[in-house]
Amino acid sequence: MNTPTVPLVDPQVLDRIRGWRGYAEAKLGFRNHWYPTLNSSEVAEGQPVPFQLGGEKLLINRIDGKLYCIKDQCLHRGVPLSRKLECYSKDTISCWYHGWTYQWADGKLCDILTDPSSKMIGTRSLKTYPAQELKGLVFVFLGDIEPTPLARDLPPGFDEADRRVQPFRRVVNANWRIGAENGFDTTHIFIHKDSRLIRGNQTMLPLGFAPNPNSKEPLFETRHTEGGNIGVFDLLAERGVPHFEGSVHGEVVRRAIHGGDKHIAGQISLWMPGVLKVDPFPDPAMIHFEWYVPRDADSHWYIHCATKVVEGPNADAEFAEEYEALWKDLYAHGFNDDDIWAREATQPFYQDDWGWLKEQLFEADACIMAWRKLASEHNRGIQTAGR
Amino acid sequence: MNTPTVPLVDPQVLDRIRGWRGYAEAKLGFRNHWYPTLNSSEVAEGQPVPFQLGGEKLLINRIDGKLYCIKDQCLHRGVPLSRKLECYSKDTISCWYHGWTYQWADGKLCDILTDPSSKMIGTRSLKTYPAQELKGLVFVFLGDIEPTPLARDLPPGFDEADRRVQPFRRVVNANWRIGAENGFDTTHIFIHKDSRLIRGNQTMLPLGFAPNPNSKEPLFETRHTEGGNIGVFDLLAERGVPHFEGSVHGEVVRRAIHGGDKHIAGQISLWMPGVLKVDPFPDPAMIHFEWYVPRDADSHWYIHCATKVVEGPNADAEFAEEYEALWKDLYAHGFNDDDIWAREATQPFYQDDWGWLKEQLFEADACIMAWRKLASEHNRGIQTAGR
Amino acid sequence: MNTPTVPLVDPQVLDRIRGWRGYAEAKLGFRNHWYPTLNSSEVAEGQPVPFQLGGEKLLINRIDGKLYCIKDQCLHRGVPLSRKLECYSKDTISCWYHGWTYQWADGKLCDILTDPSSKMIGTRSLKTYPAQELKGLVFVFLGDIEPTPLARDLPPGFDEADRRVQPFRRVVNANWRIGAENGFDTTHIFIHKDSRLIRGNQTMLPLGFAPNPNSKEPLFETRHTEGGNIGVFDLLAERGVPHFEGSVHGEVVRRAIHGGDKHIAGQISLWMPGVLKVDPFPDPAMIHFEWYVPRDADSHWYIHCATKVVEGPNADAEFAEEYEALWKDLYAHGFNDDDIWAREATQPFYQDDWGWLKEQLFEADACIMAWRKLASEHNRGIQTAGR
């Protein structure tokens, strides 16, 4: 299908971008990458669930425990199959409109209930996407090539044995890149200066950081995971000077809250195709991961993962209890709710793409630029949702 | 008035359409054709009613029993006259803003209440459209040429003496062509397989039809009415093989409901400028007609007409009673309500025009293609709403 | 920042405009002019208030009694400062996101709370706009040049000593030019023919005016104020023939209401950058002024000012009482509410800019054309909101 020349991104903006054009183009995310979507528990046997990813309408189902994901759009007239689900056999779904019937496994048009003699049968296939489960999350490979190993799109440590994961998914009305840059940006901790988490968990957070004037060391570093993924570390917190006092005209006007001595957020890194690791967080014994999953051009799924290594037979249940009792309110809400409104307040400036040119970044944003370049060089394709 | 080059339909789509470009262009319907609009009973003497047709705002009035239709937009500043109706003489309407006064009969600017000396008076005219009543429906000739006889835009039999008509108008949020193709498409009966009408009226409906493999006969046929209109008949039901069982992987997974032996929907035909005839329907003694009237690019009036030949002095009242008591619920709602959501579920795929290229039609759609070609060749113009 | 070629106004329309292109371009108003905004009483010491002007988001504050207006958009990431106000010193405002801190007086980036060592500090400035108070209104100079004296953008008499002003601000969902032309247009009095004000204040209003057939005198005249502003007077009321009877087909169909003998609205003039003077109105002892302040392309602030010369120590309080007790209901609502719906009913025709070409003006609109030409020639720039 030819693409209309009506572009997804303003071409005048793209022409002015130097060094990270691919990222500027990726308004709907990247093609040929794994993205987390629903929770495993949300996809029950034989009960298809519709959702949106990279601007596409998808439908996922569980058959004999295994997951299958297809495009939620009949080949014939383009209607969403999910408008009225009709599954007449375990391994197929039929369109409510003319009975075009597709196999979940390969998308093949295997029957047409209104015309069993149609020559279309067996010669057409609906787009399918590989799906896989890990740590209670359903990952979908939004692509056309032979799927890469899931590990290549994971942040380091996420798939570690005995690491328990509590995912919490929210829709944020901002482009996924606004989400990623909000999370990775070290100095955005300024918006968390009054977060309940700080006192509530006896932690301590500076107001910001300044690069070390006596050092020429870069403030970021690109690394690979064992799984083969690539990401960038923000080293400002490590190599810079933390500030616990904010001054205006040389007078201290604001001090950081000292909730206690717990050291958190020592290492912050952002990985392809858009997942943040904060280690440790929100507690010395925990690691925080968050994905920014493109739903459409103007919204993303903020998939917030509290994780902890817990052993023993009841480890999952134990951590689930601890999360519900303590962390969900204190940090998922008490800390990260501020990031949600911050992203939504940033979106209008970037919505027409011109914000990428009008913004004025400062020293602490070095890691943001590093991320944009990395993402432009190391993605496996730009998602365009068939446009 | 020059047309802006901002086109109503994506030119890149039009360039790719072969054989039925005119239909692809007719997003707002056709120019110089008769369309049904309001019910006669809705237009009372001296009480103008505003409505929308082909993307234009119109205003219709009844004077001494006769109907007059004008554009609902003052020539001066383009305001809708209907925003505040001011009629100071039986045969005129005055604009609430500056008192520009137009004659219903010819649209002529006959007076300006704020400046009786204006040179504009008598030299300008508001656009008028011929209007005519038939069988309780108000027809408007949306055009600029000498109006053709109404019969040229009617389906055969509609104007038959003693044929009683019960019109039922609904707004459907889909382009009028989505409506027409939904109604004409034989195999869409699949969505009606559980309709209350089937058991409720002891009828029987197959799940679908297959072309007869041993026949080379075309599955459609173009015909003319005595009145001079042209339409296409879907012969799939006649020449094809009805299927009462639907199979997946060779196993029967769904059987059609046998409500009884009543034979319905034997002949289905679609006529210019967009009106369907189903004969007989929903009962052997009745004929169903439905018009798809363009309101704007994204919605149409679904004018549903139950008809029956009834003689005698109280024929109209008798059929009205029968319709209210039985048919309105059982078929207008119990059958055609499904078509409404089906059309609205189809609309998004075609909304940006690219659906016309992305769709994948099958054998049973032969009549749809025939209709598109016929409509492209035999329309009297494309409606563009002055753009 | 380069401007995208996506134009604010349809270039095909601009190419067809003869003699007043600048006005057709001024969809967001004019640059380098003074506009009234909030009431003085709405801007309290140290309590910034956000508002919109010419498509820009602005923020205004009062410091030691003086007003300061800045762009409500952080230089760094373009977020609105007003989303979460953080002022750590009397003369600065800090962005809630990364602590970028600006001086109200000159917009200079004087500190960054998250990185006091940033080289950006002192080298960047947020856009500021001069603000000034007069007669209880806050005026903002929406421009980039050395501000002109406020008097150059005032209608004559507004700043007269002892003239008391009662401002009343409403949002109208129509472009500011639709507002200005509605107010200036003499014959629009037709919509006021039933206004409560006429009987309520024993005044008398004709239905309209006709140019004097025996006179060749122009129906408008351009004049300057002592302050240096320029405006156009509509002389139709003065030189034309008032009509108290409206006729259709030579028969009187409507008579003007004679509420009494009070003569009002003798002189009507429209001044840059878009402010109307009606003298006297609504009472022989009063003068009415109204500004049409562009908020964005599709709405304006209708700032309605009842004024009267009253002397003595309690003059302001006395007039305020008189206004609340009598005028606010009888004329602000009882007369001008009709102008609000008239403007909103006119907006759709002009929204895509083509209305400027499709309209058909008549003799009484001579002053409207004069205004358009004057505004095109004498503006100090076109507001484009950085696009």
Automatic annotation (TrEMBL), chains A, B, C:
Ranges annotated as spanning the membrane: none
CDD domains for the chain: RHO_alpha_C_DMO-like (cd08878)
Pfam families xref list: Aromatic_hydrox, Rieske
Rieske domain ranges (all copies): 34-140
InterPro entries noted in UniProt: Cholesterol_7-desaturase, Homotrim_ring_OHase_catalytic, Rieske_2Fe-2S, Rieske_2Fe-2S_sf
Positions in coiled-coil regions: none
Keywords annotated in UniProt: 2Fe-2S, Dioxygenase, Iron, Iron-sulfur, Metal-binding, Oxidoreductase
GO molecular function, one term: 2 iron, 2 sulfur cluster binding
Gene3D superfamilies: 2.20.25.10, 2.20.25.680, Naphthalene 1,2-dioxygenase Alpha Subunit, Chain A, domain 1 (3.90.380.10)
Protein name: Carbazole dioxygenase
Organism this protein belongs to: Immundisolibacter cernigliae
Upper lineage: Bacteria, Pseudomonadati, Pseudomonadota, Gammaproteobacteria, Immundisolibacterales
